[in-house]
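Worked problem 6 (solution included).
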Amino acid sequence: MAAGALMLATSCKPDEYSTPSAVVTSAELVEGIAYSVTASASNPNTIVCKSLVKGVIPVWNTPNGISEDEEVTLDLPFSGDYTVTFGVVNGSGVIWGEPYTFTVDQNDFGMLSDDIWTNLAGGVDENGNGNPKTWVPMDKAYSPYVGSAPVGYMNPDDTKNDGTGSTDIIFGTGNWNMNWDPGFQSWLIPADDPYMQSSMTLYLDASRGCVAEINRYDSSGLTTTTGGFTLNISDAKRPTISFNNCEVLHAAWGDAVCSNYSKDIKILECTEYVLQFATMRTNDEGAWWIVWNFVAEDLRDGLISIPTGEPDLLETNPVVEPSYSDLATELFTISGSDATYVASATTYLLNEETPYDLLWWNPASASWDWIIDGNYNSSWAPAYADEDFALTLENTGKMSLESAVVGSQSAKFTINGNKIVFDSEITLLTAGGNTLSGAEFTVMKCSADDDEVVFGIPVEKDAAGAYNKYLCARMTIKPIGGGSEGPTVLTVDNSKLNVYVEAEKYFRFELYNPWAGKGDDEWPVDPTKLKLKKDQKLVITFTVSGIDWTGSPKAAFCCNIDGYSWEPDCFSNFQAVDFNTAGSNTLTITNDTGSTYSFYGNGCATVCIQLDGYASSTDISNAVVNVTSLTIE
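Solution. The predicted structure is:
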């Protein structure tokens, strides 16, 4: 009979032992001589199994699996008879003794007090009767939880998917995020896949312990397995679950993707409504977390609902194609350092880092998201280079393409809504099995400010029949003249700097503040030019004189771009630099939002310096700020 709540982490199977040890016979492996099984003095439901044999590697087969530890502790919330078998490594195998049976006389449901037991497996009542909990594959987005489909992907090198590079997985929504939520894909799990009929029922039984019943449907029909499970919540922030004689529910194609579906599976989320696990991909595509998403069966079937006060059930958002007010003009718009204008012809070059990609509709966030996004490391997404690629459009309706890979091509074109239509089929690129060819391309993105133009062809539909995935060429706009632009130098009138002390602690001077009640011409720089394209930097060099500094303050460039902080946090994160009290200082703001950011009307551009405690006085009446350089690079 399986135990209920065990905090046991097993590691090896019996046939994996090969370390020689002292010669021991099966008859010698007797409880009380070779090992002991005793109840803890503090709690009779806690059983301590201890090896008494020296010079050997012990092996335990407990109700919760196998361990080679010298001492194993079993927390058993249910009364009943339990069996432990003790063995030792001998040569290339394991010598087992006879099974030893012991009795736990009472229930201790206090061991099941953590809410995760009720959320995961229904918990038990005061008599130890279980309330089975059935989980089914996620069929749509359920706010506020992550995911909109049965499976997703999480970057092991950035588990929060926020650029911080976190590798730790912390339990609970908001502490992790998928880097790709694929929705329902025909090559992965479509909406009509047999897997969607599958279920996983977990429950607690006073005689059988923790029971798992797995019903998996695939193209061959139904497969049912019944076993046990072990929940490890010794680290509440990193709970895991292990399965005995069965595996966590997953789609059949996943059998070849991950080698482990039974031991120490990471639990990402476990509430009354949503259950999510992560298994590590181990095939030749490389290490990656595969996220398996489940919802409570009664929630999916509408028998229960997320209560008022919590976010309502969120239906998936239907596909919305990109739209433009005047695509014919936008395709010929070029954004220069000083002005934006409409050209008679534009030339597009392939993005060197991401020349092609798959763009898919994320039904949970109602956004178009990239799939490959620079990860050209597999047979289906090989690296691609075409240094001679140049696609030129003339406003007379002529197109010419020069390409080292697909050759020279020409055609005439028209603009129809969000599409560019050619009078003959053209091929933009081909990489492995990915060929971008056709007479009609949907313009998925077109932004002169972001220096981005994307042509795509549809490759997949969702269950509603709408195209939800496109193979795309990701292109940049070639500057007029063909050369790369240097830094844009902004003129600064130092006499118009807004200099003051904030909160009687911090020295500030502002280049621009839309909430200060000043006109555009009252600022030291033209605020309409304070605009950063994606990945551009605003760099300021300055000096401050007239203050009697007594310490070593920090300085920071502060703004309203997401990720940037204000005092005092800005002095202890990436924004902070050591302030040179006797000379020149340089500070930088980088726009990593993924699109153009305009300060004008939206946010401040302010330099902040620690003052209180770092100067003899907070009086700045004699202070002089001199900005010697302000550039956009």
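Discussion: The chain has a mean pLDDT of 87.
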